[in-house]
Amino acid sequence: MSLISRIIAAVMILACTGGGVLAQTPALETLADTLGPPAPMPPSHVVIKDKTNDAGHGLIITWELSVDDGGGRDNVIMYDIARSNSPDGEFTSRGIVPKGVNEYEDADDQAPTPTSPNPDYMAAGSTWYYRITAISDKQVRSETSDTAMGVTEENLFHWGKLPILVAVVLFTAYILNFIRSARKGKKLYVRPLAGINAVDDAIGRATEMGKPILYILGLGTAGDIATIAGFTILARVARRTAEYQTRVLVPVQDPVVLAVAQETVRTAYLEAGRPEQYNPDNVFYVTALQFPYVAAVNGIMLRERPATNFYMGVFYAESLILAETGNIAGSIQISGTDQVAQLPFFVAATDYTLIGEELYAASAYLSQEPVQLGTLKAQDYLKAIIMIVIILGAIAITGKWTFIREMVTINL
Amino acid sequence: MTTGELILNGIAAFLTLCIFSFLYRDNPFYKFAERLVAGVATGYWTILLYHTNFTDKVIEPIFVYGQWYYIIPSLLGIMMWTRFSRKWSWISRYSIAFYIGISSGVSITVYLYTYLFKQLQATIATPITFDMAGLNMFLIVVAVLSALVYFFFSTPHKGVLGGISKVGIYVIMIGFGAGFGLTVMGRVALLVQRVIFLKDYFVVLFGG
Amino acid sequence: MKILDKIMLIDRRWIYLAIGLAVIIPAIWSFEVPVTVSPEVKRIYDFVDQLEQNDYIFVAVDYDPSSLAELNPMTEAIINQAFAKNLKVVIVTLAQFGPGMVEEITSRLAANHQKIRGVDYCFLGYRPYPAITILAMGVDFRVPFPADYYGTPLDSLPVMQGIKNFGDVKGVIDLTAGNTADFWLIYGNGRYGFPLAIGITGVMSADYYQYLQSGQLFGIIPGVKGAAEYEDLVGFPGRGMEQMAYQVIAHSVIILFIIMSNVAYFATRTKKDKMGGGAL
Amino acid sequence: MKREIPLLIVGITGFAMLIQYFIPTDWSEFIFTYSQDWVIVIGILALPLGIWSLIKANVLKLKVPDERFYSAVLLAGFLAMLVTGTKRESLEAGSTFMTIFTNVLIPIQATIFSLLAFFIASAAYRAFRARSVLATILLVTALIIMFRFIPLGPISTANLSAVSWILSVPNMAAKRAIMMGIGLGATATAIKIILGIERTYMGHD
What we know:
Order of helices and strands of chain C: HHHEHEHEHEHEHHEHH
Mean pLDDT of chain C: 89
Largest sheet of chain D: none
Mean pLDDT of chain D: 94
Number of helices of chain D: 8
CATH class of chain C: Alpha Beta
Largest sheet of chain C: 6 strands, parallel
Low-confidence stretches of chain D: none
Largest interface: B-D, 109 and 122 residues
Distance between the termini of chain C: 25 Å
Helix content of chain C: 40-55%
Radius of gyration of chain C: 23 Å
Order of helices and strands of chain D: HHHHHHHH
Shape of chain C: elongated
Helix content of chain D: over 70%
Shape of chain D: extended
CATH architecture of chain C: 3-Layer(aba) Sandwich
Oligomer: heterotetramer
Distance between the termini of chain D: 11 Å
Number of helices of chain C: 11
Low-confidence stretches of chain C: 273-279
Strand content of chain D: under 5%
């Protein structure tokens, strides 16, 4: 109830100040004439609190419903919330709420600028006065409630996001802990992943055939975590190709990805002890847009006939176009993406697919460094916690207890 | 259609056919369209970025609104150009560091919120009752749990865990099958649009 | 066995040709295909069908012209059905570019059925902020919409006499391309408890079947397929049916190829599968 | 200096952005928008790297007889857009720039997209063979879903109920589990990046 009414109230403000949803409500004039329809009793006990989890641009106004709302004459249809910046100043309407609602959120965070002055702006630490009026179905206004005062306050922590903070802290602690125990030499088991085991074979095959390897990083930016996972796998692949003296072609569609991919491949050649064999032109920019990029990569596949295609990163509709063309070219294909909608196509059309989390795990697998493997263990622990929450949560909700669900609910 | 429109539509129709010819095999027409579109797309993108983002985020803040602090990201952007020189290219790592640092920091909470908490909350939102709906809710919970087990990396998938993880990958495969089957409709609709475009053009051209 | 071997290794260009023909043929000779009606579509049809003359039905047309191809056929089929049954229709749109589209559809269909604006149906118009508009309509349609789309006060429209809020309509059908369905679920059905059904684009439909299970929706019309089903039920074939011809043939072709592929696979299974491919 | 300071920058900015999320003040909001602009500006100003890579490759190919024509086409297309797009107004409908956009870029993009109708069929033909349990599950589910278009009387009616169940139960569960896995994997990777454990992308000398 309170959440819903808050949302209503928030939207109402927008509606009344900006969009004007209700701006066309008929003029709500008071009918002072005692012979007219009766006026409802006013709402009472207006209480104003700071809106929590914000930068100090909002207040929450609550009141006790008019006795004629749901009882008495039962003629209230809505409440009008009026505001002023002084107790004796002019009160102007900030919005209305339907009957039965006893809460209104008044907020305005649009700080005035020279081009757009905003007299309604609620600065942090400012004081406001409110009065509520009930309005009857015949548009008769009640007397106003008593005036109440509130001060906006800047909050330093968003409590609604607490569960996320807990998860971050817990996760980081687990990661650090497992890295520490891995450094001490504790052996960590990881189950085999077919897609990972295929990587070396695929590179060997390319060497035997004397054909290049094509590595596609997808359409993500260098800031996408999936693309960064793609860079890590690229580093391993490039290092092997440097050892085997096989070419690796990396066509990209973003200039920052281009820079990072070049750097990754160059370093891999350096680590393999063959820096002189690194050719920066093998990592090249094709074009920025999705389908022109696909057209160009398709051309490369059919003309260069790469022995192996890797698809690691963020992919959209082009996933299947690329994978089918690669199949026409007779390449072995290994794919991995975090785009749930594209996974079916990679699974169907490529030889090995790293499904979602497996893509992120791949870098740890390929490195075989204890530090990296330690984070996999941390992921598993978190997964176990999630499973316990699901089991307990499902049981609790069946018994109508919502506390577990509320514990994992984020109130933005 | 005017003659001008007829010619322009003719170009579009010709390029459409060039791309379709790829289905038969790679050929000079496809290669022509492929290179043309790569050039045009890069040109389009450059101009678009210049008139929109570059003007809004570099030119106007610094030269119009006097927001001097926009000089910092601009300098970082210009530092990317050191990549043209082998000797100085390490300087571009500073820009990349900001780029990736900011993106990763933002990603953590975004992923936790949308991918983890929202899904978790949705899974435990509905009571399991003793009817069809309740049974389905129960099945969803069981299916989610077993699919999660499939993603365990640090335990061997043997015994009970192996069995559950097997159910998990079955569930995942059903999801993939459904995703594949559902998409066919949309893809066919895309092809229909192109075919109708060509048909309309040829009808006008040959006065059908 | 030789033929089956050939099928296993069929040149993919034959598949492309088949798909190409499946789309080109209906483009040249249009024809109608039979459709089987899904239970979730049938329930909406039955719901409207069992209403009495002069009962009220509320239709929300919450999509922009970009999704018109899939959703217009649904809107038309539902309004056709309602007019044919002499129901009173109240229409709203919560999509910014919706009004022009709604105005076009309603005036055209009203003319076909000899219905009069303001007497047999009412088009309220558009308001931004779906949540608040829905909540406010739950109090009284006149709160967000003192006048209809054409500026006539609701109180002076014969069709709006004696009807105040959702309590006076038999049910709400929301035609949507996306998240307005959530608003109708939470603020509409959730708060005012009226029967709610949605018509939704194909890609979005999978996400809403869960509300069918939980009983918050009494029906779903999913994508072009659903639109064609509804048109079939109502008996006014339109754009939905037209698009079905392509879809039915293309789907049949793909299914036939899958079956062929499996027959050939099992018949030649002793040999090594030379085609490769597939992560499985 | 060449690697350590950049890694430190990644750590500090990453941590700052993480903390920013939990602080609702105006200051924090400003940092968020401003830092997003950093990413955008770096991305825009890096574009010359891409263009240089493209131009260089194609100018070199002008010397190869078989490639000469195609590279010339690419360069001509690129230059045509640059020349016609110099003015701000060229982004409005009716300009030469937008005419090329509408009649070259749009039809080619739409046609490449529509190739998916063919490829979805050939992929189904090849992959949907019942050679293992997993392949069979994939095959059967996809067939059930595709069958919703095929009018077969009572069989179709039963099939449509199956479709609705598959979509709302196992399909929903699979999506959720995969997403939760991605959430964990991506978060772990991002934490590793900020902590400097994952640093391959940075390269070294």
